[in-house]
Design brief:
Helices cover 52% and strands 18% of the residues. By secondary structure, the protein is of the alpha+beta class. The protein has a five-stranded mixed beta sheet with strand order 2-4-5-7-6. The protein has a two-stranded antiparallel ribbon with strand order 1-3. Strand 4 (168-176) and strand 5 form a beta hairpin. The longest helix has 55 residues, at 8-62. The chain is globular and about 70 Å long. The structure holds adenosine-5'-diphosphate.
Length: 255
């Protein structure tokens, strides 16, 4: 029976089936190793600030001389990092589950960006960063103001984190027909062509070494992508290694 079934056409069918099964297994394997890598990244990202918080708190408990404002600040900074990470993860899972609500209102996008930048400049000026805003007239859009704020905030945060010695970031608003385009430009290291399509992926980081001073979650841009897709907005990135990056998105103007 065995010989008959595996002869001729039947055999080819079995061979095809086995090819399909192999391909599926490979695909599943890829997903499985990707999943493991994601969990490893997340665990690492959660554990690093927690380890720091516990270590600093213990040192301050046991060695009275170490109870300094600088050490307390480390605990506060690391707790802040942890909060950002957990918030990003929650946003991400809500976006993935499709339960993220969109509360659209008509508002002035230009003024909203202006006030975000004002706040951010105040926060960052002591570190020498400067964010410039250029706009060609004030425009209104119909969108979820808080979510668009999150998009702009994430893009500026990245621009600041990845900018080089020149700590200047440019935000530009360009009106074109019935659309308004927002561009966030830095003069940092830029992104290699091969890495460019993946920067929007969850937990993707070009530099996976964890050595970088800035410890990102790899979630920022996938949140940006999800929010913009929720708004049916166009978006993209133009980047050249050594010459910096421009991240952009477009919304429809509400007249
Ligand atoms: P992260 O928390 O690591 O910044 P993101 O999702 O915001 O995560 O970005 C994904 C990756 O894309 C980053 O790790 C970085 O490698 C790259 N990237 C994002 N923005 C920039 C930028 N302005 N300049 C250079 N690389 C960037």
């Amino acid at each position: 029976d065995f010989d008959v079934r595996f002869e001729g056409k039947d055999y080819r069918e079995v061979a095809e089936l086995s090819d399909t099964l192999n391909a599926t297994a490979k695909e599943l394997g890829k997903n499985e190793s990707l999943r493991r890598e994601l969990i490893a990244n997340v665990s690492h990202d959660l554990r690093t600030p927690l380890t720091m918080i516990i270590a600093y708190a213990e040192v301050m408990r046991d060695l009275p001389g170490e109870n300094t404002p600088e050490n307390v600040q480390v605990v506060i900074d690391e707790a802040g990092r942890l909060t950002n990470l957990v918030n990003d993860m929650l946003d991400m899972s809500k976006l993935q589950a499709g339960v993220m609500e969109k509360n659209d209102t008509v508002y002035n996008l230009t003024e909203s960006i202006e006030s975000v930048l004002e706040r951010y400049n105040k926060l960052k000026e002591q570190d020498g960063y400067c964010i410039h805003f250029e706009y060609d007239g004030k425009v209104q859009v119909k969108a979820d103001e808080y979510k668009i704020y999150q998009v702009i905030y994430n893009l500026i945060n990245n621009a600041i984190n990845y900018t080089g010695k020149d700590k200047t970031v440019w935000v530009r608003q360009k009106i074109s027909g019935d659309k308004v385009r927002i561009e966030v430009t830095d003069s940092g290291d830029g992104i290699a062509k091969e890495a460019l399509p993946y920067v929007w992926d969850r937990y993707y980081k070009v530099d996976k070494t964890h050595k970088r001073a800035v410890m990102g979650t790899g979630l920022g841009l996938s949140i940006v992508k999800n929010i913009l897709e929720l708004h049916h907005a166009g978006y993209g990135v133009v980047s050249e290694p050594g010459c910096g990056s421009t991240f952009w998105f477009e919304l429809k103007i509400e007249r």
